[in-house]
Structures are given as structure tokens and as C-alpha cells.
Amino acid sequence: QDNTYAYVEILKDVTNKIKLKQQEPEFNRMKRKMMRIELKSEMVGASLGMRNVFDLIVRCAEVDSTILIQGETGVGKEVVARAIHNRSYCKNKPFVAVNCGALPENLIESELFGHVKGAFTGASSTNKGLFSEAEGGTIFLDEIGDLSPSLQVKLLRVLQEKEIRPVGSSQSYPINVRVIAATNMDIKEMANQNQYRKDLYYRLAVIPIFVPPLRERKDDILPLVDHFLNKQTKQSKQNKQNPKKLNHLSQKAL
């Protein structure tokens, strides 16, 4: 008895896909290089410390991990946060900045998580809160070290569960928000001394970024001077009534 067998062979040329896969690291390297060049139009810095910050900004833009930016007052922590957001997958979504240290203790919870009508005296309407306003985007929590212990617990739960519960509500709501926090305090040391929740610190500092003060990056002084001189010159040209020429430093200033 004769048995007939049929064989089918399908060939597909995957050479181009293999080549593309091999070139992917180079594409990513070039992409990061271009992003670093773009950053120089927003942030001034030629020192090693600032180059490290630029590198972290580029890399953080590729992931959605929680970030803790640390540095003294005035070093530009919010500028760093905005630079990360503007290069991330959620760049077309809201960027909501909150100064946790400026909000009264009795209002900060409702400002962050919202409240329902009648939740407390003066709550004449429902407020969705800043986390909800940042849906799909980034919420920047500045001065995170100023949070009270009770707020630290509630923020920890938000980070763990990815949901918020408005004040006065019995229902929780899921959120899709990237959290970038900032502080001028050493909250790691505070956590070690039981002055700050350790579990919250480690939730916030998945990726830590330290922005050094200008006194530790003197290589950036002259580029900053040049930046502000150019900025002042442009503003003076626009002010036709009182034009000023500020295109160099005096010998005394140098």
C-alpha cells in the first residue's frame, strides 16, 4: 500500500528584523544623546554633577518608576521634574505641581485626594483633588519631607494600591499617575531616626536624583552668567523705552 505524504515549508526572510534588533542599542544611544542636547536648552550645566543629572533625566523618562529629587532650596528640583515629564510617555498629559509645605495640615488631604460634598465644614461641593487632575500624567509633590505622619500613611497606601479615597467618601477610585517627589531634607536619615516612615521613603526613592548646589559645581558659574546675560539682553531689546546692554562682565565681577 502506497502512502502519500505532503510537506509544506514556509520560508520567511528575517534578515532585516535581525539587523534592526542588532541596531536597537545604537538607536537608543542616539536617542538619549539627542535628548541630552535638548536638555541644554532648558537647563544650564557643564559640570560632572549636572551631566549626571542630565543622564538620569533621560533614563527616568523611559520608565514610570517613582522618583525622589533631593537638593537644597533653589537648585531647580521642579525644573528637573518637568524635564522628566516632558520627555516621558505621558508628556501630553497633565503635570500638576504641589507644594506640600505650603498647604495647611487640615486641607492637604482633601487637596491631594479630593473630598465629597459635606465632608467637612465648608465643603459645599465635591472636589476631585490634585491626584485626579493629574490622571494619566505626573504629580510633583514638592517639600515631601513636611508631610505629617498621618499623611505619610495615606500617601503610602496610594502608592501601594494605586487608588485614592476622597475625604468623606466610602469608595476608592483607581488612578494612573506618576509620582515625582522632592525635598531639601535628608529624609533617608530622618527615616533611620524614626522621624519619617521608612516604607514611604523607599516607595518614593525608587530612583533617587541629587541635584548639587552651585558651590559644588563651580564649572557651571560662567555658563550660568552667560545664560543670564543673554536673557537680560533679549529682554532689554524688547523694552524699547529703557534699553540696556549687558553683554559682558566687569573686571570687578570676574
Describe this structure in words.
With 254 residues, the chain is an alpha/beta fold. Helices cover 40% and strands 11% of the residues. The protein contains 9 helices and 7 strands; from the N terminus they run ααβαβααβαβββααβα. The strands form 2 sheets. It has a 5-stranded parallel sheet. It has a two-stranded antiparallel ribbon with strand order 4-5. A hairpin with an 8-residue loop joins strand 4 and strand 5. Helix 2 packs across helix 3. The termini are far apart. 24% of the residues are buried.
Widest sheet: strand ordering: 2-3-6-1-7
E-strand count: 7
Distance N terminus to C terminus?
Answer: 102 Å
As a whole number of angstroms, the C-alpha radius of gyration is 25 Å
- Helix percent band: 40-55%
Class computed from helices, strands and strand pairing = alpha/beta
N-to-C series of helices and strands: HHEHEHHEHEEEHHEH
Low-confidence stretches: none
Major sheet details: 5 strands, parallel
Q: Into which percentage range does the β-strand content fall? A: 5-15%
Mean pLDDT value:
84
Shape: extended
